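User: Sequence in, structure out. Go.
Assistant: Echoing your sequence, followed by the structure tokens.
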Amino acid sequence: MYKRTEENDLCSYLVVPHEQPLPQEVASTEWLVHELDVDFERTGKTHFTLEPDDAFQQIGEKGYAISHLNDRTKDGNVH
């Protein structure tokens, strides 16, 4: 799980499957490791602003999942 702080102190989160490199599309931005070995399951629980079903769909399509612009949150306000 990676985190990037953006304008207005809003944070985006990026999930990359275990042992996969940071995708080239996002490697040029300033992502920091936020948490390792996150158990991201389809439990219905939101993980760092990412809904599990949406995250798995994004991972299936592009190999990673990222917060949607409207889902960004202030640091510390994550579930």
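User: And one key feature?
Assistant: The chain is about 15% helix and 20% strand.
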